[in-house]
Design a protein that fits this description.
It holds the Pfam family ThiI_fer. The protein is an alpha/beta fold and 388 residues long. 41% of the residues lie in helices and 22% in strands. Helix 9 crosses helix 13 and helix 10 packs across helix 13. 44% of the residues are buried. Bound molecules: adenosine-5'-triphosphate and magnesium ion (MG). Magnesium ion binds next to loops.
């Protein structure tokens, strides 16, 4: 008997056409192999068969447990479990093998057997559930199909069967790499890693762009959070952080731009530099952590003014548009970056006073044009730091 990992893949992948699905599945397997390599998981076989993903040839039980943990952070995985792999000769033999493994699980509990077969076996799933259920019954408190305390899953594939207690939840989504590349404007606060995660979940290779607005110490925060995110979630490629020095831009804004427009002009400057960089480096979109109405610079009127003042030639995607702060916080907790992101300080002290909440597009453009040359200059130099 061997312990292996059994996972289900996102319904979205399963439903793809015969032309697309193999490409998505290949990418998923490659990303998992990359994840195992980066996380030192010593399991040597990963494959997909009939919408199930298998990991076997693991060095020891610890590697199996570790593989389950890592798989629960790979986009494209719906559920994952440690499974006991057995071979059997006939249905009675199978019931015996299941009893050896699952006897302890059902002891003094109300249980249910959930059997699935591949189709080549000379019995039905219902037969299997009945015979296995009868074998476990004497150990248990009885069968309860509606509301069991324990479920015993038996996935039968020819003369082999995978036995487990149910799958823990994966992130779903699409395998990173099937959907192009994007940059994420990344301050390192709570919103930007959540936005990056949302992008990656849709199969996008994300790289991060950080603007140093005041102290260069902000790079350390962005790096700390970016590395955590990359280590936990960004598999299948080598994610990077690009750092632009925006101090000349913030200085120019502070000196030349009308106070109530300072935040919005800064925002526009960030977009423009990101647009130029995306076009030059072959990124298909820009993501930000903006949420409609969260702060005065992000009112819908201001987002409107930003587009009217200076339309962008690259899609600007705001995956958190409809989230409130609590939802964003609970997402960052779930994805394991909350502790790191909450430590990030606010560095930019621009415009402490009143911020325009209904910026006028023409005026915004006029204010922006005052500093355009400096933004242009800031866009020409950056440094690149690998995150993984
Ligand atoms: P966050 O929690 O991500 O810092 P926030 O709630 O502080 O966001 P803002 O500071 O208004 O909100 O920023 C909104 C978005 O603008 C961020 O989510 C990020 O995408 C982008 N952004 C803000 N500051 C920077 C920066 N210094 N470098 C790169 N992107 C930034
Ligand atoms: Mg911020």
């Amino acid at each position: 008997m061997e312990k292996v990992v059994l996972a289900s893949i996102s319904g979205e992948i399963v439903l793809k056409s015969d032309r697309t699905r193999p490409r998505f599945e290949r990418r998923l397997v490659n990303n998992i192999i990359d994840a195992f390599r980066r996380e030192d998981v010593e399991c040597n076989r990963v494959w997909i068969e009939a919408a199930r993903l298998y990991v076997s040839n693991c060095k020891d039980e610890e590697s199996v447990e570790k593989a389950v943990k890592v798989l629960s952070r790979v986009f494209g995985i719906h559920g994952v479990a440690v499974a006991h792999l057995v071979e059997y000769s006939d249905l009675n033999d199978l019931a015996e093998r299941v009893k050896e493994i699952a006897g302890e699980w059902v002891r003094d509990k109300r249980f249910a057997v959930r059997a699935r077969r591949s189709g080549v076996e000379p019995f039905t799933s219902l037969d299997a559930a009945r015979v296995i259920g009868a074998a476990l019954y004497p150990l248990s408190q009885g069968v309860d199909l509606e509301n069991p305390e324990v479920e015993v899953f038996v996935e039968i594939r020819g003369n082999k069967a995978y036995i487990h207690r149910g799958m823990s939840r994966g992130p779903d989504g699409l395998p990173i790499g099937v959907e192009g590349r994007a940059i994420v404007l990344f301050s390192g606060g709570l919103d930007s890693p959540a936005a990056a995660w949302m992008a990656a979940k849709r199969g996008i290779e994300v790289d991060l762009v950080h603007y140093v607005l005041a102290s260069p110490l902000s790079i350390i925060d962005a790096l700390r959070v970016g590395r955590k995110l990359a280590r936990f979630w960004l598999y299948g490629y080598r994610p990077k952080l690009y750092v632009f020095d925006f101090r000349p831009v913030t200085a120019a804004i502070a000196g030349m731009v009308e106070n109530s427009y300072a935040q919005i002009v800064l925002r526009l400057a960030m977009y423009v530099v990101a647009e130029k960089f995306a076009l030059a480096e072959g990124y298909d979109a820009i993501y930000t952590g903006e949420s409609v109405g969260q702060v005065s610079s992000q009112t819908l009127k201001n987002l409107y003014a930003l587009t009217r003042a200076r339309p962008l030639n690259v899609p600007l995607i705001r995956p958190l548009a409809g989230f409130d702060k609590e939802e964003i916080v609970s997402l960052t907790r779930r994805i394991g970056v909350y502790e790191e992101a909450a430590k990030t300080r606010e560095y930019c002290q621009l415009a402490r006073g009143l911020v325009a909440t209904r910026a006028d597009p023409d005026k915004l453009l006029r204010e922006y044009e005052k500093i355009e040359g400096i933004v242009e200059l800031a866009s020409t130099r950056y440094i690149e730091i690998p995150l993984a």
